[in-house]
Amino acid sequence: MSDQSALSSAAGVAAGHAKLAQGAASEAIGNATGSEAWQQSGADTKAAATQEIKQAAQSGPDAKAQGGVTGTAAELADKACPQTGDGVGSK
Q1: 61: which DSSP letter?
Q2: How far apart are CA 43 and CA 7, in angstroms?
């Protein structure tokens, strides 16, 4: 795949993680204040972000990353993200 495709995929994954953080913050505000609307909005945002991350990671290049880390972009994203894989904070 081209460098442009790799950049597009990486940008999509990054945007998805930003949206995931936004959803987590909204949900935390809802939990702290007892607002079910904020809790639901945060959960919905996180669910949408998770799908965006997966789609962006799957559309990226299927190449080996530098530094000896191997796997598809989707596999790497699943390992790194607590919402989509077994990454930090998933347990």
Answers
A1: -
A2: 28
Cβ pair 27, 42 in contact under 8 A = yes
Residue 54 in domain? yes
Closest by Cα among 17, 68, 70, 73 to 45: 17
> Is 69 inside a domain boundary?
yes
pLDDT value at residue 61: 63
Residues spanned by the domain of 48: 3-80
pTM of structure: 0.63
Residue 47 in any domain: the answer is yes
The CA distance from 14 to 57, in Å, is 10
Number of domains in the chain: 1
Instruction: Please give the average pLDDT of every successive group of 10 residues along the chain, which has 91 residues.
Output: 68 90 96 97 95 83 46 61 54 39
Tell whether 30 is covered by a domain: yes
Predicted pLDDT of residue 56: 85
Tokens of residue 10, six digits:
């990486």
